[in-house]
């Protein structure tokens, strides 16, 4: 491609509303342009990168035995109502009506459509297992689109769905996809971790893993062991102590209750938070009990954790088997308990009380006295309040012992979710009637898996990991072009003739080349080249008179004067992976 003909405009300054470095650089380098909040046009360079990622995904999906199809983005609401998700998916589901007032949704995902399709097409075990996938635009009405392609309202996604006759078959399908995802993200040049995760709105009955690209801008926290391979999203992560406690139960509290003085109420005017208590009484947050009231569906419960720990709402939600959960507002707390927020405690509380394992182990602590401006000291779990509902209700903390091995501790990282694999089981196939006849002629429900990759999100995740002060540095496998060929002076006949010869020879070898044939100053060309981030660069300047060019790999930044033949050899070796 000749750059003089390329639709490309670079920006010297970052737009003021672009927070993430990937958003800034992709706008400045002319890869994307915003149409509306969370909605983008992929410019020619951006579209080339997107296609490269798509092709990697296709190759690895096909290699894993999956078959590509294409389903409609516009889905009838009846399917979502049949699965039970239409009312519970939330405001992110874009809903609309046609001229006949029939309800539709713009698909954020396609479990309902694919399950109905397979239900109508397959009726015998002889045609199973099967895995189907598509690469298609998805829509989610994000409350706050941000970070460019990382959180948009319209995005490109690969979603795959497996259908098996039994759980053993699902395990095999899941492992094929799990391994394929590793190959995909490795080929895209990502530094990533596969972590245990929660199924969220997709749901399911089996395991699930998220694939996280490590990046400071990531909205997810990953807890990973310093010794073994354990890694989990923070919402799913547990600690060694919690894992060991889960095999037993707490009913009586610490065994040495006799040595703890009796409970004592003391005055704490205006002291509502753990931090304020620490400042006021001089005790450590780890010696305090934090009590928070939640509304889970129609149930109101109190959750008690240690003062230095944070409640994990998802763990509470799963423990209660609830669809929705939220912290009760001050008005609700006062109406239900007669106590202002900040002074709630487990002693004498009439609500059901869920106690975290670590909180249950305290020998004595400080807790709210269920009376305005008062707290208790010397509170002992099991003696002063019941421990009939204990569990792991907190976020794992950095430095906690690993739940999977005896030596490691948990270390935290930030991550961008670029892929997610689920064992759905019969969540959708049972509700939508996807059944087959087994070898004995008996009707059975299909066992499903679901596997998604945020294809457009991968672009931003890669840029977040591959850039420097001058611009993007694309991995060669997904770069828009492999070589940036830059003649310094287009009016110099010798330079242009040599550049044209190199251009033709590289194209003949199947190398993707961008030839900067613009009549611009050298400084402008180099700044644009750095910003665009093509991985290999050949500069044709005055030294071409002696048969030499300047060769540079964008990542290393080291410029070398070498002969044209050697430059060709280096390019071919880099492109072909030698």
UniProtKB/TrEMBL annotation:
<dbReference type="InterPro" id="IPR036621">
    <property type="entry name" value="Anticodon-bd_dom_sf"/>
</dbReference>
<keyword id="KW-0067">ATP-binding</keyword>
<dbReference type="InterPro" id="IPR006195">
    <property type="entry name" value="aa-tRNA-synth_II"/>
</dbReference>
<protein>
    <recommendedName>
        <fullName>Proline--tRNA ligase</fullName>
        <ecNumber>6.1.1.15</ecNumber>
    </recommendedName>
</protein>
<dbReference type="InterPro" id="IPR002316">
    <property type="entry name" value="Pro-tRNA-ligase_IIa"/>
</dbReference>
<comment type="function">
    <text>Catalyzes the attachment of proline to tRNA(Pro) in a two-step reaction: proline is first activated by ATP to form Pro-AMP and then transferred to the acceptor end of tRNA(Pro). As ProRS can inadvertently accommodate and process non-cognate amino acids such as alanine and cysteine, to avoid such errors it has two additional distinct editing activities against alanine. One activity is designated as 'pretransfer' editing and involves the tRNA(Pro)-independent hydrolysis of activated Ala-AMP.</text>
</comment>
<dbReference type="GO" id="GO:0006433">
    <property type="term" value="P:prolyl-tRNA aminoacylation"/>
</dbReference>
<dbReference type="InterPro" id="IPR004500">
    <property type="entry name" value="Pro-tRNA-synth_IIa_bac-type"/>
</dbReference>
<comment type="similarity">
    <text>Belongs to the class-II aminoacyl-tRNA synthetase family. ProS type 1 subfamily.</text>
</comment>
<dbReference type="Pfam" id="PF03129">
    <property type="entry name" value="HGTP_anticodon"/>
</dbReference>
<keyword id="KW-0648">Protein biosynthesis</keyword>
<dbReference type="Pfam" id="PF04073">
    <property type="entry name" value="tRNA_edit"/>
</dbReference>
<dbReference type="GO" id="GO:0002161">
    <property type="term" value="F:aminoacyl-tRNA deacylase activity"/>
</dbReference>
<dbReference type="GO" id="GO:0016740">
    <property type="term" value="F:transferase activity"/>
</dbReference>
<dbReference type="InterPro" id="IPR036754">
    <property type="entry name" value="YbaK/aa-tRNA-synt-asso_dom_sf"/>
</dbReference>
<dbReference type="GO" id="GO:0140096">
    <property type="term" value="F:catalytic activity, acting on a protein"/>
</dbReference>
<comment type="subunit">
    <text>Homodimer.</text>
</comment>
<keyword id="KW-0030">Aminoacyl-tRNA synthetase</keyword>
<dbReference type="GO" id="GO:0004827">
    <property type="term" value="F:proline-tRNA ligase activity"/>
</dbReference>
<dbReference type="InterPro" id="IPR002314">
    <property type="entry name" value="aa-tRNA-synt_IIb"/>
</dbReference>
<keyword id="KW-0547">Nucleotide-binding</keyword>
<keyword id="KW-0963">Cytoplasm</keyword>
<dbReference type="InterPro" id="IPR045864">
    <property type="entry name" value="aa-tRNA-synth_II/BPL/LPL"/>
</dbReference>
<feature type="domain" description="Aminoacyl-transfer RNA synthetases class-II family profile">
    <location>
        <begin position="33"/>
        <end position="475"/>
    </location>
</feature>
<dbReference type="InterPro" id="IPR033730">
    <property type="entry name" value="ProRS_core_prok"/>
</dbReference>
<dbReference type="InterPro" id="IPR050062">
    <property type="entry name" value="Pro-tRNA_synthetase"/>
</dbReference>
<dbReference type="InterPro" id="IPR044140">
    <property type="entry name" value="ProRS_anticodon_short"/>
</dbReference>
<dbReference type="GO" id="GO:0005829">
    <property type="term" value="C:cytosol"/>
</dbReference>
<dbReference type="InterPro" id="IPR023717">
    <property type="entry name" value="Pro-tRNA-Synthase_IIa_type1"/>
</dbReference>
<dbReference type="GO" id="GO:0005524">
    <property type="term" value="F:ATP binding"/>
</dbReference>
<dbReference type="Pfam" id="PF00587">
    <property type="entry name" value="tRNA-synt_2b"/>
</dbReference>
<dbReference type="InterPro" id="IPR004154">
    <property type="entry name" value="Anticodon-bd"/>
</dbReference>
<dbReference type="InterPro" id="IPR007214">
    <property type="entry name" value="YbaK/aa-tRNA-synth-assoc-dom"/>
</dbReference>
<keyword id="KW-0436">Ligase</keyword>
């Amino acid at each position: 491609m000749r750059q003089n003909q390329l639709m490309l405009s670079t920006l010297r300054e970052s737009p003021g509303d672009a927070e993430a470095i990937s958003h800034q650089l992709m706008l400045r380098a002319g890869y994307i342009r915003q149409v509306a909040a969370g909605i983008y046009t992929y410019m020619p360079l951006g579209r080339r990168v997107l296609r490269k990622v798509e092709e990697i995904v296709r190759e690895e999906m096909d290699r894993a035995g999956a078959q590509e199809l294409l389903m409609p983005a516009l889905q009838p609401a009846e399917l979502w109502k049949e699965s039970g998700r239409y009312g519970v998916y939330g405001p992110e589901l874009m809903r609309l009506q046609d001229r006949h007032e029939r309800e539709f949704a713009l698909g954020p995902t396609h479990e309902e459509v694919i399950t109905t399709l397979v239900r109508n097409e397959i009726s015998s075990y002889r045609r199973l297992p099967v895995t189907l996938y598509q690469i298609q635009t998805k829509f989610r009405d994000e409350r706050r689109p941000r970070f460019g392609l990382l959180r948009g309202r319209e995005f490109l996604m690969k979603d795959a769905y497996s259908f098996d006759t039994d759980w053993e078959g699902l395990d095999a399908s899941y492992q094929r996809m799990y391994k394929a995802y590793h190959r995909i993200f490795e080929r895209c040049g990502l530094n990533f971790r596969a972590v245990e995760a929660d199924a969220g709105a997709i749901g399911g009955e089996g395991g699930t893993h998220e694939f996280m690209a490590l990046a400071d801008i990531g909205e997810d926290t990953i807890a990973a062991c310093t010794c073994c391979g354990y890694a989990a999203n923070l919402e799913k992560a547990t600690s060694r102590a919690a894992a060991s406690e889960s095999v037993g139960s707490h009913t009586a509290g610490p065994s040495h209750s006799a040595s703890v003085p009796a409970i004592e109420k003391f005055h704490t005017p205006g002291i509502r938070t753990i931090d304020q208590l620490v400042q006021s009484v001089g005790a450590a947050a780890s010696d305090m009990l934090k009590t928070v009231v939640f509304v889970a569906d129609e149930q109101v419960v109190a959750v008690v954790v240690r003062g230095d720990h944070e409640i994990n709402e998802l763990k509470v939600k799963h423990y209660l088997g609830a669809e929705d959960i939220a912290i009760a507002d001050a008005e609700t707390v006062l109406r239900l308990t007669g106590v202002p927020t900040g002074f709630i405690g487990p002693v004498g509380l009439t609500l059901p009380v869920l106690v975290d394992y670590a909180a249950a182990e305290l020998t004595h602590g400080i807790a709210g006295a269920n009376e305005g401006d008062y707290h208790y000291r010397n509170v002992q779990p099991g003696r002063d309040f019941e421990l009939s509902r204990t569990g792991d209700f907190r976020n794992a903390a950095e430095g906690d012992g690993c739940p999977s091995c005896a030596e490691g501790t948990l270390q935290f990282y930030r991550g961008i979710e670029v892929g997610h694999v689920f064992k759905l089981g019969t969540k959708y196939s049972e509700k939508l009637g996807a059944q087959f006849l087994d070898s004995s002629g008996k009707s059975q429900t299909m066992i499903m898996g679901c596997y998604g990759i945020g294809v457009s999100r991968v672009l931003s995740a890669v840029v977040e990991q591959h850039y420097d002060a001058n611009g993007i540095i694309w991995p060669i496998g997904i770069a828009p072009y492999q070589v940036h060929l830059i003649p310094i002076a287009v009016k110099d006949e010798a330079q242009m003739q040599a550049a044209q010869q190199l251009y033709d020879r590289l194209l003949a070898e199947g190398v993707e080349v961008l030839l900067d044939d613009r009549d611009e100053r050298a400084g402008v060309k180099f700044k644009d080249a750095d910003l665009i981030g093509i991985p290999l660069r050949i500069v044709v300047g005055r030294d071409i008179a002696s048969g030499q060019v300047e060769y540079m790999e964008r990542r290393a930044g080291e410029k070398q004067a070498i002969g044209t033949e050697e430059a060709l050899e280096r390019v071919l070796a880099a492109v072909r992976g030698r």
